[in-house]
Design a protein that fits this description.
By secondary structure, this protein is an alpha+beta fold. The protein is built from 13 helices and 4 strands. Helix 1 (2-14) crosses helix 3 (26-41) and helix 5 (59-70) runs antiparallel to helix 8.
């Protein structure tokens, strides 16, 4: 349904002949059907459900950005992520925005933007709050919306607690959530896991048997760790503010480029 609406909408904007021949109600009808279809595909009643995968993958960079902004030693004051319409729908669902504001339960217009405004009046970061602002397409200004089943701003710690349990953080989690063993690095992870498993089950001679207890553990751990480091899925670095770490750079690129797993219902 999205493809039908998108074709009609783009041609209505850029093709005068198409726009003149399109019956007056058809585009609005297609938009209503596309809103219903896309919202029900890219949301889920369960926060950890596969329908929310588009929103689950952008939670880690959002929460890490909050950490950076709240860290007095970090110069970061602004974080920008470019996304398609799908994460908007999942994020509206995960944060309760669409429930509190049903008009947002649909496809966003071109150039739409969500501004999560981090507000802190004192030095205690645990008292910081987040305000949800949204501008749909070419609207002249942002509008503040209620979210997270409450009115007004939400404490940042409340947001962490609510969203961190459903986020997808890393390629391995993405592969598992999407039941994918072939694409976007999943094949390499599957192979590494199989090799580690095979190494653990390989027969050993009498001499090797004496080192079974510690040896197998070290080999399996080393193979798994080496595979993750080689694939760029494990990075050793200084932990972020409050010792929280939500994502790595490779996974941020994956989320920003809209690599969601698709499913049908």
């Amino acid at each position: 349904m999205w493809n039908v609406y998108d074709y009609m909408n783009v041609n209505n904007i850029h093709n005068a002949t198409f726009a003149d021949t399109l019956p007056p109600t058809f585009l609005a009808q297609a938009r209503v059907l596309a809103n219903w279809h896309e919202y029900n595909v890219f949301t889920d009643a369960d926060p950890s459900g596969i329908g929310n995968i588009a929103g689950q993958t952008i939670i880690p960079p959002i929460l890490e950005a909050f950490d950076s902004i709240l860290d007095p030693t970090d110069p970061t004051k602004l974080f920008i992520s470019a996304i398609s319409y799908k994460p908007f729908l999942s994020l509206f669902n995960l944060t309760g925005v669409a429930v509190a504001n049903p008009q947002l339960a649909g496809i966003v217009d071109y150039a739409s933007a969500v501004a999560l405004e981090l507000r802190q009046s004192g030095n205690d970061s645990s008292e910081a709050t987040v305000r949800f602002n949204f501008k749909n397409g070419s609207e002249s200004q942002f509008t503040t919306y209620n979210w997270m089943n409450t009115t007004g701003d939400v404490k940042v710690e409340t947001l962490y607690s609510a969203l961190s349990t459903s986020m997808v953080n890393g390629t391995a989690q993405w592969c598992s959530a999407c039941a994918n063993t072939q694409d976007r690095g999943c094949a390499a992870l599957t192979l590494a896991a199989q090799q580690a498993y095979a190494a653990a089950l390989s027969p050993i001679n009498l001499v090797g048997a004496g080192f079974l207890g510690a040896g197998v553990t070290i080999v399996v751990f080393g193979l798994a760790l080496g595979a993750l480091v080689f694939l760029g899925l494990l990075i050793f670095r200084r932990p972020a503010f409050k010792q929280r770490r939500f994502r790595d750079a490779e996974d941020h690129v994956r989320a920003m480029n809209g690599h969601w797993c698709y499913h049908s219902r």
